[in-house]
Write a structure and sequence with these properties.
The chain is built from 1 helix and 5 strands, in the order ββαβββ. The chain has 88 residues and is mainly beta. It has one domain.
Length: 88
Amino acid sequence: MFRFSIDGGEWILKFSPKLAIDEAEKQAILLSLLHIGENLAKFPHGSAFIMFTQKIGAIVFDVERIPSLILTVSNIVAEENWYNKNQY
């Protein structure tokens, strides 16, 4: 679990217990979130969003605003597991 601030909001970043990722990947995810900046405040409670990174792949975040500002990394999908209908 990590705590970080963006645009005056104090956020908590959690990782689903089903994910097996190392500390370096967790740090990379946190640093990627810092690039979103104020756009993070636009996601309402109960929503989800995906961030794409070259090193990790597609990262799925769940957003909670009650009782605290919490982002949970619920899944990570490596690029080789993406389906692109234009590819086939």
